Structure formats: C-alpha cells, structure tokens
Amino acid sequence: MLVKQLCAVLFAVGMVSQASARGNDIATQAPLLGMWANVDPETRGVTRLVITEEDGRLFVRAYGACFPTDCDWGTVLASMRTDMKTSEKVACASWDHTFKDSHFIVRRVREGLEVTHVGIYKDSSNRAHDVSREVFKRER
C-alpha cells in the first residue's frame, strides 16, 4: 500500500509515470537485480539491498545500520515506473516502520544503484521529514 501512495504522489507532481498496464517488465528489472552494498561503509542509513524477481514481480529487501548487526527491514513488493524528467526506469518501494514510513526510488547509475530515500515521520516526535541519496555497488 505504501509504495502505491508514494508513487501516486510522485505521479501527481509529474516525477514518475503510472505503473505500466503490463505490470513490471522483467527486462527492465534485470539491471536492478542482485545484492548491493552501500559505498559508504560508515553510513548511518541503509547498508545493503537485495533485489529479486519472482513471477515477474520485483521485491526489495533493505538492511539499515544498527549495532551490533544490521537491522533487517524485510522484503517488500516494488513497482517499476518511468522518471518523467529523464525517461529512465525506476523502482518504487516502501516500508512501514510504525514510527516512520520509508520510501525508496531506486535507479541504475554508472556506479551501481542510486537510492533516494524519503522518510516520513508519523510519531509525535515532531522530527522533520528527511530525504537522502545513497549509492550502492554490486556485491561480489
């Protein structure tokens, strides 16, 4: 549900297209598939991503920086969209952390993957929502 909300907002402001009527295109998903590590080993954000395809559907599993081991955010269904400014294919994925919704826009870049992370706080902490960009390289 969250991924639909984020992508609907991005569609409304002209950033991404609506989901394809054909669903996710496996050929479009292929460059995103695999295990990815953040290029910043000291990140306080997302440390790793695992992107898989099953029956034509795209799934993203994220791990956040926690101590002593990374936190497993779990696996969510993603949707493929088109960036309206660049015509690039991007994936949208979202997690509900109870206190915060995390929305990702994942795109292929020369270095690997670029993830734009939009964090929407929904607790009573009055923290400002945040946006960050992180780059990931394919794990060997």
List the helices and strands and how they pair.
Elements: H1 2-12, H2 26-29, E1 34-38, E2 46-54, E3 57-64, E4 71-82, E5 89-96, E6 100-109, E7 112-121, E8 130-138
Antiparallel strand pairs: 1-2, 1-8, 2-3, 3-4, 4-5, 5-6, 6-7, 7-8
Fraction of helical residues: 10-25%
Number of domains: 1
| CATH architectural grouping | Beta Barrel
Mean pLDDT: 84
Weakly predicted, low-confidence segments: none
- Beta fraction: over 45%
DSSP E strands, number? 8
Radius of gyration: 15 Å
- Overall outline: globular
Structural class: mainly beta
Topology order in helix (H) and strand (E) letters: HHEEEEEEEE
Under CATH, the topology can be stated as Lipocalin
Please give the largest β-sheet.
8 strands, antiparallel, barrel
CATH class: Mainly Beta
Q: Strands of the largest sheet, in order across it?
A: 1-2-3-4-5-6-7-8
CA-CA gap between termini: 33 Å
Q: What count of helical segments does DSSP give?
A: 2
